[in-house]
Please model this.
Amino acid sequence: MGTGIQLIKIRLDLIGDFDVYSRRLRAGVNHTGAHDFDSHTSGSEQVGHAAVMSRANILPDEATFRDFRQSCLSADNWLNKYDKEGMQVWTEVLPATKGNNNLPKIHKIKCKMTIKDVSAATMYDVIHDGTYRKKWDPTTLESFDIARLSANADVGYYSWLCPKPIKNRDVVTLRSWQVMDGEYIIINFSVKHPKYPPKQGLVRAISILTGYYIKPLGPNSCTFIYLSQADPKGFLPKWVVNKASQVLAPKVMRCVHKAGQNYPEWKQQNSPDQKPWLYPEQNTLPMMDPAELAIQRGDSLENVDESCQAESE
Model:
C-alpha cells in the first residue's frame, strides 16, 4: 500500500503543539483527523477533539492538504542533519518542555531531494503503485490496501523492518491524495480498523501526519519532499535517532529516486494502463464507509521502552 516510506521517525523531543493542526483543533475549526492526542493531552483538548470529531468527516479536507504543503515548504524550526548531492534531511526543533520527561516521544522528520532525471508525475506513480513498491522498498515486511473510501482516499496496512535489535513496526492508515496546479500531494494518518488490530510481534506505531509533496521543476525533473510526524510508540535509543536521520533516511530517498528511474520500463511490462490513483473507475477494492474508521489514539496502544538497546553489529 502507499502509506509512505516508513522511515524510523527520529526525534526525541517531548510532544508539543502540532503546528497549525493543533491550533486549528483547539480553535474549534473543522478538523479531519490527522492528529492524535495521547493520554498526557489536557482534558480540555481531549474534549475539544472529541466534539470536533463527532461532527467532522474523517476524510481530509482542503485545509489539511494546504497545511501539509505549508509545512513541507517552511524553513522554520528545522535542524539540518544531512546535506549532500542535492538531498537534505531535517529534524524539527521545538521549544524545550519542562517536566514530564518520561512521556513518549513524537518524531518529526523532513527529507527533500532535487531529482533531475525523473518527472513529478512518474514519482507520484511510484509512491502510489503498491505492486511496484515491493520491488524497491528495502524496509517493507507486508503492504496491502484494504478498502477504498472515496475517489481519492483508501485505507491500508503496512509493516516495516527496523534496525536490529529494535522491534519492527506496523501501521493502519487512511491515505488521501490530491493533484492541483501541477503539484502532487499524498498524505496519511493512523486509524483504527475493526478487522486489523495490533499484531503479536510488532509494535503498532502511529502516523500523526505523513506524506509527500512533489513539484515539477521541468518535464523530467522535480522537487520531492517527504515529511512525517509520528509516534513510534516507545522510547528509542540515541543511536537510532542519529542513524535514522544521517544514514537510513538518505538511503531510502536514494532508493526512491532509483525506483523512479526504473519505473517507466517496469510499468510498461506490468499493466501499463492500470493506474487507479489516476483513474478511480479502475479501482477494484471494496468500498468502505469512512464512518467505520476511528482515529488511532496513542494512549490505547502499548509503549515499548527500547532506549537501552545497543546497536547490532
In short: The CA atoms of residues 34 and 257 lie 27 Å apart.
